[in-house]
Automatic annotation (TrEMBL):
PANTHER family hit by this protein: COLANIC BIOSYNTHESIS UDP-GLUCOSE LIPID CARRIER TRANSFERASE, UNDECAPRENYL-PHOSPHATE N-ACETYLGALACTOSAMINYL 1-PHOSPHATE TRANSFERASE-RELATED
Protein name according to UniProt: Capsular polysaccharide biosynthesis protein
Ranges of compositional bias, category Polar residues: 1-13
Organism (species): Streptomyces laurentii
Alphabetical keyword list: Membrane, Transferase, Transmembrane, Transmembrane helix
Any single Pfam family the record assigns to this protein: Bac_transf
Disordered as annotated region, ranges: 1-46
GO molecular function, one term: phosphotransferase activity, for other substituted phosphate groups
Amino acid sequence: MTTESTSIPSSPGSRPAAGRFPYGSALAAPRGAAGRRPVLPPRRPARPRRAAAPLVAADAAAVLLAVAVLSAAHRRWEVPLFVAAFVMLLDGRAGLYRPSAGARGGVLDELPALAARAGVAWCGTAAAVAAYAPGMAIAPLRLGAAYGTHVLVVTVARGLVHARRRRMARERPRSALVVGAPGAARRFAAALAQHPEYGIRPVGIVGTRHDGAGPDGERGLPVLTSAEEIHRAVIQNTVRDAVFLSDDAGLLTLFQHFGCVTWRVGRTPSGATAAGAMNGHLWGYGCRRLLPAAERRGLTAKRALDVALAGPALAFALPVLLLCALAVRLSDGPGVLFRQERVGQHGRLFTLLKFRTLRPSDETEAATRWSVAHDRRMSAAGQFLRKTSLDELPQLWNVLRGDMSLVGPRPERPHFVAQFSRVHAGYAARHRMPVGLTGLAQVHGLRGDTSIEDRCRFDNHYIDHWSLWQDVCILLRTAAELVRPTGS
């Protein structure tokens, strides 16, 4: 869609109550700040991916040293490669490469999970070797020796990694906010302050100023009561952890959006998923890490599906792309591709590609006007491309680049993201997942000039109930829609 109308599609009653944060937090906005909500600040990654590198290296070293125990016939590159891939896949799925509960976890806590998965990997490799080349079957004693060596090496290597992390945690603790009733939160914060070995330094309390507490908690910790105060504290104190003593789904989503690692002390909140491999304790307080929806629901598989389908689709569609480009060039002149800034996952901006279906008068019109289905400036070629959705084909390149997914909420321009986030509660939460070429809202006919409130509801339902099979079903329904196109 290349142009926009100045009106904002909405429906009666869609405006949230004053002071309500887009993610659904119950915190009240500061006085005089009605309509000024934080809209998708850039998300800081919760933990750089390189944090997993030492643990991956430990697994790789364990496999290489274990293979050295085998006979020369079994030291071919296929055996260690197969075992390493198997081990890393199983450990990754179990969350053994994610950050543990700071200094709270230890290699002995992980040992049962590591040993079980190493056993599956080695037994699977031995079975594959025996099936492929019966004469090269690995003898049981050698297999047991390789497995024992693997477990021993990975235990020692991970122990060294955890020891280094505990030392770094003591020397450079991570700033954290404690979420809960001020009385309990102050006691918890005091315990952490007295035990720096856990690597967490409380810098504030998120709650209410009731229960007789003053504006400041124990040790001068401020009590934050609004989304604006939380946002300011996260930025100014470089907050990287949020510890929840009570349930609040809105705040949980808010902190995860800000890129904070979220922990639950006590029981797991309803509707949240705790990572079992990252259980631990903070001075006797049971602690579990809460994973955001995008992290806990297998987006690696989603990305693999995108690459597996978008790559061949782009190759097979090349003749169609060339014909579309030629039609646009002949009907509308130079400038076949239309480039526009859109908002992607976690508020990141990217350049979306489309075939040009009309030429806006200026950049402001393209960025701030809603699409008009029968704009008189649109050529016959542009109308055909828009009606058949062929103008969207260049976005397969956006999918391959990782800007988008095949399935997800449709991306919108920053101008409209800001406006819709103020008007429609929950609109900003659509950006928890990668934006998509098609989505649940689109296969239900919500394209073009349709209700933003309805689209928002469908998009958040898709995110909350995401599965790889749902993506496949949406793609099949989209393919069926192309047979009877309605356009956007």
